[in-house]
Amino acid sequence: MMEQAHTVLRPAVDAQRVRAAQYVRMSTDHQSYSIDNQKDAIREFADAMNYDLVATYEDAGRSGLNLEGRAGLQRLLADVETKNADFEIVIVYDVSRWGRFPNPDESASYEYRCRVAGVRIEYCGEQFANDGSIGSDLLKAIKRTMAAEHSRVLSVKVFAGQCRLIQMGYRQGGSSGLGLRRRLIDQHGRTKTMLALKEYKSLQTDRVILVPGPPDEIATVRWIYNEYVKAGRTELQIARSLNAKGVVTDLNRSWKRESIHQILSNEKYVGNNVWNRQSFKLKQRKVTNGTAQLVRADGVFEPIVDRKLFKRAQAMADARSSKMNNDQMLVMLAGLLKRHGTLSGPMIDAAAECPPSSRYRKKFGSLLRAYQLVGYDPSQNYRFLDIRRRLREILEEAVQTIVTTIERAGGSAVRQSGLGVLRINEEFTVSIAMGRCRNTPYGYPHWVASAERGPAAEVQVAIRMSPDNQTILDYLIAPTHEIGGKPLNHALNKRLEFNTFFFKSLDPLFALAERDAITAAR
User: Fold this and answer.
1) Exposed site from 55, 60, 352, 355, fewest CB < 10 Å?
2) DSSP H helical segments within 233-325, as ranges?
């Protein structure tokens, strides 16, 4: 049972009921913090305080280390700050439900933003009243610091456990690569199954190891090494030869110089287990680690490439890269920029005269540093990529929410094609699109929709984003025939014309998918 506050003030029965919302979040750390338990505690608190719960904001299975991916909290902040909130109070179980941010001030900032907008925060599971007193503020600061410390301690323990598993010869994430496969084994080392691409273990006690893959893929890997070491061909030449033969990578893509380089430099092909090339601790900043930070175990997998051949390939790669000094590399990069007016990793890899992008990263610390040295500013491109990545994440979360909610209600929601087309209850199809916001030269927002191509669905759903493209503004949910055959962009930008189809949540869609029980005739 979840511990409750010992003292609860009970207002008079005839007092006017106050409208309140609840925010609940469940990470994967404690079962006692499950969504249902939080809701039960909040409901009891609201009844005792004579509050009406009129809205729920939920983040299920979401890390509390940052705001990214927490659509529930983002919607809450957006509704509060845009004055769309139809409530005066937000009830949260305890201080840590805001998040276990490494910087405790981040947790405090979200409560502060609500308070400035005129919405009060109350904690039903804490032993203090959130009344703005010195004692209350001090206890909240301590709780936030404790939550941050919990994340740091847990991160250290998890990292130590991962290092131990690597040294025992178990794979810790990542695809197998061409010529190899991931085998799932139980805690006693017995084979359970072979994992396909995007399949993962489900039991904590299971482990994954690398084993040789199909003979034709092994032959391709060995051919690459022989062509590079014995025939003296370059990575780009090898990539072009494989593409000419119609051979594809393990991801069913055409070959690039970088993909050849990955095969020639990865120690898994000689049976070594190497991990921690990059770190993303506490989800703060991704860094590339040096040799000293690598965690390794040599000879733990069955090799498919001779170790001497592998070492010769590394020596040849080092010799080839050392023939060109930093200034010469920058001259090549500047020439590429002059011809194309822009730069990117794939563009560098495709240029025969330039070293691969990985060598620029190694020589200059990052591609951004190399870009700066030749006078190129990629900031606009990176901002665009960040926004596009964010929109993909929001679309995926929306689709997952629709599928989960409908299945919990006893219905079915199956993806038909791509990311945004669902077949609901084997009765109708729904197309889910993103409505990205762009500012016009006249200063007002304009929404542009990107939907899956294919047969028209019976119902159109468009997620209309706020001007910063970080939070959801509202949803367009309309039968396709009601839009009148007009483009989705037209409907998104004509709020007055299609006002009856704009909603603050996906609830109308869930209502369409409800299955009514039919009583048999007697």
Assistant:
1) 352
2) 235-245, 257-265, 307-322
pLDDT higher than 90, residue 193: yes
Residues 185 and 309 in one domain: yes
**For residue 385, pLDDT beyond 70:** no
Question: Which residues pair with residue 143 across a beta bridge?
Answer: none
321 CB-contact burial (10 Å; exposed 0-12 / middle 13-18 / buried 19+): middle
Contacts of 83 (CB under 8 A, 6+ apart): 117
Structure tokens at 135: 């004692």
Integer Cα distance of 134 and 123 in angstroms: 16
Q: Name the domain boundary from 152, 168, 198.
A: 152
Q: What angle do CA 405, 411, 415 make, to 5 degrees?
A: 75
Q: CA-CA distance, 141 to 111, in Å (whole number)? A: 12
| Whether pTM exceeds 0.70 | no
Q: Which residue, among 68, 62, 13, has the nearest Cα to 35 in the 3D structure?
A: 62
Contact (CB, 8 A) for 356 and 348: yes
**Tell me, what CATH number does 85's domain have?**
3.40.50.1390
Contacts 24+ apart (CB under 8 A), 413-419: 413/513, 416/454, 417/452, 417/454, 418/452, 418/454, 419/392, 419/395, 419/452
DSSP state of 511: H
Is residue 190 in a domain? yes
75 and 50 in one domain?
A: yes
Mean pLDDT over 111-121 rounds to 91
Q: CB within 8 A of 304, min separation 6: which ones?
A: 179, 180, 212, 218, 221, 222, 269
Q: What is the DSSP string of 75-91?
A: HHHHHHHTT----SEEE
Select from 415, 491, 417, 487 the least CA-distant residue to 452.
417
Supply the DSSP string of 111-152, one letter for each residue.
HHHHHHTT-EEEESSSSS--SS-HHHHHHHHHHHHHHHHHHH
Which two tokens mark 302? 């069955």
Give the lowest-confidence range in 38-52, 69-83, 249-263, 415-429. Answer: 415-429
Residues 258 and 277 in one domain: yes
The pLDDT assigned to 183 comes to: 94
Task: Label residue 387 by pLDDT band (50, 70, 90).
Answer: confident
Residues with Cβ within 8 Å of 176's Cβ and at least 6 positions away in sequence, in order, are 182, 210, 213, 250
Residue 164 falls within a domain, yes or no? Answer: no
**252 and 210 in contact (C-beta within 8 Å)?**
no
Q: Residue 207 belongs to a domain with what CATH number?
A: 3.90.1750.20
**Does position 30 have pLDDT exceeding 80, yes or no?**
no
Parallel/antiparallel/unpaired status of strands 428-439 and 459-465: parallel
Nearest to 23 by CA among 97, 115, 101, 113: 97
- Is the same domain home to 29 and 90? yes
Residue 93, Ramachandran bin (φ over 0: left; ψ between -120 and 50: alpha; else beta): alpha
Residue type, 126: E
